[in-house]
């Protein structure tokens, strides 16, 4: 477990470095293709430093806002508060902030840069459709992510992937609607053509690279969180039954998107949108997760 925590801290540094290089590459492509000189690189540098700083300190707030999560109301949802507080004490963790997403699809996620600044968000559908033992299994799984510092890696990946996608899309639109194209010709015309192709490829493929960043975060973190969550509750069938119910539910989580899907306990986009979503699935097979829990 402690090796995993150390590995996740290292992944956070590597993730930030890779993201910075990716944004700088997109900025260079924009500057070259539009003849804007250093403007594209300066813009990319500004985005790199702003989003790196913002992702670390405010990524949890950004993700909670994107997910339309509201702070839990102790008078309306004391049941959830009781489960989170009880399991946090048992895990030896500070009690994370609790949030609720008003959506019938059962799902949950944890976020935050460390255990002292963590939050857990669950949907109303999760609270309505799971019994207490199943809800405890889900909350214990999310607490395991917090304890293992998975939340830092996941949240950074979600915010950074979204930033790369938006930046690349904006630059492509600018280029298409009058941003200009670099003029080739003369003896260097062939070289310019090659560089133009490289630049266009970078801007087009950047969102795919961003998705690969998220997929590069090992799926083993889900297996580890399942095991640690089951260890915390001392009841593996609780989480196994919860995963079975979540996977079989046909409601789509309306607030989920490609940037935040990796945060959830079960991929909210799986089964929606065809084979491409399954091809880039950020979670291990649910059947395998259930089988491992039932074998414990």
Structure keywords:
296 residues; mainly alpha; Zincin-like; four-stranded mixed beta sheet; 66% helix
Radius of gyration over all CA atoms, rounded: 21 Å
Count up the domains: 2
Number of strands: 4
Ranges where pLDDT stays below 50 over 5 or more residues in a row are 183-187, 272-278
Strand order of the largest sheet: 1-2-4-3
Provide the CATH superfamily of the largest domain: Metalloproteases ("zincins"), catalytic domain
Largest sheet: 4 strands, mixed
CATH topology type of the largest domain: Zincin-like
Query: Please, what is the average pLDDT?
Result: 80
The CATH architecture term of the largest domain is 2-Layer Sandwich
- Global structural class: mainly alpha
Number of helical segments?
A: 11
| N to C succession of SSEs | HHEHEEEHHHHHHHH
Q: What is the C-level CATH assignment of the largest domain?
A: Alpha Beta
Helix percent reads 55-70%
Span from first to last CA? 17 Å
Strand content: 5-15%
